[in-house]
Design goal:
Oligomer: single chain
Number of strands: 18
Strand content: 25-35%
Largest sheet: 7 strands, mixed
Strand order of the largest sheet: 14-13-12-15-16-18-17
Distance between the termini: 38 Å
CATH architecture of the largest domain: 3-Layer(aba) Sandwich
CATH topology of the largest domain: Rossmann fold
Length: 396
């Protein structure tokens, strides 16, 4: 199971798959001097992209040279103020990302907007850019050349693609006649049945290292896993020797999948339980019954998908964490997460956690501050790529 595209797939896409591209930037510029539009950057913006930032925001663009003007999904040259090309990328006339840079001179191709998770013989494609949809056939052809892959499950991120200017009213996420609904994988010694109709690509591979960490601190502990989805944290806690584990999620399919994973791993159903219930209602009910846990895990869905809803999301994060802290035994541990890039990049998460602690009448200390697994690398020139916060707190 992996998150990054195999190197041979990247090479295939860069070398042969995208119509109109050639092996180097120089050849692209010289071979098609009139056929490829140039997006000229404003003064002072060039170094940002030479340093590695893949997204050319509309505010960084000075002018566009080319007639007719480029259309969404077209290949364009990105040039400095003297109109000298520094790279090429995919243009979008609607998105705030005017160009997604694919390649600078003498550089391996980038693939912004394309994620491929491989589960056994199934490759799940998460598409979140207009160019990926335009070259869908080429992307699938490259993936199908990987020997161990027998099925490609295409999962367009509809809300993001709307912002990319695409009409997604007739989109279908999966062809049930072609791709299986389920597959099985093993991670950290634990088997998982994955629903290819589930959230994201069907499995949260980015939390892999954090799930394994939970298994190392759970021996003899009473553990609560909120927003448990298919049971990843709960199963790791049980495998790590937890005395008792409860997982809670409002999604019935997720709970059924988690229970299936208990059976798949021959775990004692008396020691690990999954409940379908709203997270806030469950925590409020547990507080009314004076219940508490040694370890609480809080991994809610993306509450702040964009900056404009960050303020409202902050209140939700504060309220959820306040409840979770009150359910944590004094001296116990709370692993709390945010998968919202807007929250992680704002730098507000720790301040919100402190506010939650004050509201709960608790004191917290940070023991561990982590993010996504190592196959989700962050380019320092593009901090916007950091989206997952995973913070372990001691709650007093």
């Amino acid at each position: 199971m992996q998150h990054l595209l195999p190197v041979r797939l990247i090479k295939s896409l860069s070398a042969t798959s995208l119509p109109g591209t050639t092996s180097t930037l120089h050849e692209l510029a010289s071979t098609h001097p009139k056929g490829v539009a140039r997006v000229v950057l404003k003064k002072g913006k060039t170094q940002l992209f030479k340093d590695g930032s893949p997204m050319v925001y509309s505010g960084a663009v000075d002018r566009i040279i080319g007639r007719p003007p480029p259309r969404t999904g077209d290949i364009v040259l990105v040039a400095d103020g003297a109109e000298k090309p520094i790279g090429w990328g995919m243009y979008n006339s609607v998105s705030m990302f005017s160009v997604r840079l694919m390649q600078l001179e003498e550089e391996a191709t980038r693939l912004s907007g394309l994620i491929v998770d491989i589960f056994g013989d199934v490759a799940v494609v998460a598409s979140s850019a207009a160019w990926v949809e335009k070259y869908k056939a080429e992307v699938e052809a490259c993936i199908n050349r990987i020997g161990e892959v027998n099925f490609v499950n295409w999962r367009p991120s509809l809300e993001v693609l709307k912002e990319e200017g695409l009409d997604v009213s007739n989109y279908k996420e999966r062809d049930p006649s072609f791709c299986p609904q389920r597959t099985k994988v093993m991670e950290n010694g634990i088997f998982y049945s994955i629903s290819l109709e589930g959230q994201k690509t069907g499995f949260y591979a980015d939390q892999r290292e954090n799930r394994q960490f939970i298994s190392t601190i759970s021996d003899g502990q009473k553990v609560l896993d909120m927003f448990c989805y298919s049971g990843g944290f709960a199963l790791n806690a049980a495998r790590g020797g937890a005395a008792n584990v409860i997982g809670v999620d409002s999604s019935l399919p997720a709970i059924e999948l988690a229970k299936e994973n208990v059976v798949l791993n021959n775990m004692d159903p008396q020691r690990i339980t999954f409940l379908k219930e709203d997270a806030s209602e469950f925590m409020k009910g547990a507080l009314s019954r004076n219940e508490s846990w040694d370890i609480v895990i809080l991994d809610p869905p993306k509450l702040a998908p964009r900056k404009k809803v960050l303020q409202n999301a902050s209140g939700m994060y504060r309220n959820l964490n306040s409840l979770a802290m009150q359910l944590t035994k004094r001296g116990g541990l709370l692993m709390t997460c945010s998968c919202s890039g807007a929250m992680t990049q704002s730098g507000m998460f720790l301040r919100i956690l402190q506010g939650a602690a004050s509201a709960a009448g608790r004191k917290i200390t940070v023991l561990r501050d982590a993010g996504a697994a190592c196959d989700h690398p962050i380019d320092p020139s593009y901090p916007e790529g950091k989206y997952l916060s995973n913070v372990l707190l001691r709650v007093l």
